[in-house]
Every structure is written in C-alpha cells, then in structure tokens.
Amino acid sequence: MVFTVFVIVTVFSALAGTFLIYSGLKDAKACSACTIGKVVEIRCTSSADGDSYAPVVEFAANGRIIQACARTRKGVVRNRVPYQVGDSVQIRYNPERPQTFIIPGYDVNMKVILGIGDLAAAIILILAICILFI
C-alpha cells in the first residue's frame, strides 16, 4: 500500500513538473514582441507575509497605449524593485495579449521554477522508492 502511494505521488509530481515547465516556457515564448516601456508607478500589495512591490509599465503595442503591472513582486528589504517611476525598461510582450509582458532580467518565471521543484521531488521520491522497497 505504501509503495503504491509513493508511486502515485511520484508520477503525479513528475507530470505536474513537466506540465509547469512546458507551460512556463510556452508563456515566455509567446512574449515575442519587444519594445521600451516607462515605469509609471510602483504598486504595493500587502499580505500576511508583508508588503511586496511591482512596477507598473506603460508602453505602446498594436497602436494602443498599454498600462500593466509586472508579474513578479519583490519585497522591501531583499530583492527590491530595481526601478523608479520614470525609468525606461525593455519589455517583451505577447502581441495577441499585450497586457501579458515580461521584463527580461527582472521577472521570474514561477511556473518553470515550480516545475523544476516538482521534478526534483519526483527524483527524490524515486530514490526513496529504490532505497525503501527494492
């Protein structure tokens, strides 16, 4: 019974990790258009873990002015937002959905990071199965 649970969790972890990495890389690849944007605001979000900040960027895409918040939020002390209002930043955006954009060197692709974590967990579980049951 324990062996079966280990195998199911391992397979689920490996599949979830593969899906997350694929999805994260697909999202990043979709952001194929490049432009320069301007930081118009540093938005603060409060949570139980403390405040986090993200730049709001304004840029032209498909003949429209887009204003959107970066996906990655950073804390106050560590990993602070390296931009100030008025700074110019290079961005890559999805031409089909310009509100979806990334700031190269700033944004973190959490899907890929979580996917790698899931695959690492699957590897650890495979090793545990080998040690405990084989």
Question: Would you mind describing this structure in some detail?
Answer:
- This protein has 134 residues and is an alpha+beta fold.
- It has one domain.
- The chain contains two helices and five strands, in the order αβββββα.
- A five-stranded antiparallel sheet has the order 3-2-1-4-5, with no helix packed on it.
- The protein is elongated and about 60 Å long.
- The mean pLDDT is 91.
In short:
With 134 residues, the protein is an alpha+beta fold.
Topology, element by element:
Layout lengths: L1 H29 L2 E15 L2 E12 L2 E6 L18 E7 L2 E6 L7 H24 L1
Antiparallel strand pairs: 1-2, 1-4, 2-3, 4-5
Helix pairs in contact: 1-2
| Gap from first CA to last CA | 15 Å
Low-confidence residue ranges: none
The count of helical stretches stands at: 2
Which geometry do the CA atoms define?
A: elongated
Radius of gyration: 20 Å
Helix percent band? 25-40%
The number of distinct β-strands equals 5
Structural category: alpha+beta
Number of domains: 1
Beta percentage is 25-35%
Q: Give the spatial strand order of the biggest sheet.
A: 3-2-1-4-5
Major sheet: 5 strands, antiparallel
Can you tag this structure with a few keywords?
single chain; 134 residues; alpha+beta; five-stranded antiparallel β-sheet; 2 helices; 5 strands
